[in-house]
Amino acid sequence: MTATVVAAIGLGANLGDAALTVQRAAQSLGLLPRTRLLRCSRLYRTPAWGMQAQPDFVNAVALIDTGLDARALLDALLATEREFGRDRSVERRWGPRTLDLDLLLYGEAMIDEPGLQVPHPHLAQRAFALVPLLEIAPDAAIPGVGAARNAVSGLDLSNIQPL
User: Fold this and answer.
1) Taking 60 as the threshold, does the pLDDT of residue 23 lie above it?
2) Distance of CA 111 to the CA centre of its chain
3) Which of 36, 97, 112, 149 is flagged as catalytic?
4) Cα–Cα distance between 20 and 100 in angstroms, integer?
């Protein structure tokens, strides 16, 4: 049997029916090859990060158990974004999007390759990812950083609203 890894995937959208898109995208993660959806957080409404003059986001985090290596998983996530109508070639960085899937954690791996950084390089600063992550994985650790609950303790959580 192939070894598997538990990975955390951040989901976000702020165009169209964002809540429905995030729910459907979470379900689609369980359809990836050699992958099983373990659980998904509830949905959260959060203000845009980076470029703030845009609609609020709907965010969630899903935990999956996957036999895909990190690069293959990232490729599958990017393909899923495209299936949901995202075209990264025409977007502005941190701009509005139909769907954003981020590989937040891949087991305890630390990967720094062109186009693939795990843990996600901004995870420890993003309450919109940490709050749903901690909901479903209260003991989550960010490799190279430490406990996710310690990272979130210094962040402003006032504008993250459960839906």
Assistant:
1) yes
2) 16
3) 97
4) 13
**pLDDT tens-digit map of 116-141:** 999 999 999 999 999 999 999 999 99
Is the CA virtual torsion 33, 39, 42, 45 positive or negative? negative
Cα 57 to Cα 15: distance, rounded to the nearest angstrom: 8
CA angle (27, 33, 39) in 5-degree steps: 35
To the query of whether residue 42 is one of the catalytic residues in this protein, the response is: no
Q: Which of 86, 126, 139, 156 is catalytic?
A: 86
Question: ∠97-7-86 over CA atoms, to 5°?
Answer: 15
Domains of the chain and any CATH numbers: 5-162 (3.30.70.560)
Number of H helices, E strands in the chain: 4, 10
- Band of the pLDDT at 1, cuts 50, 70, 90? very low
Q: pTM value?
A: 0.93
Catalytic residue among 56, 100, 112, 139: 100
Q: Are 123 and 142 in contact (CB under 8 A)?
A: yes
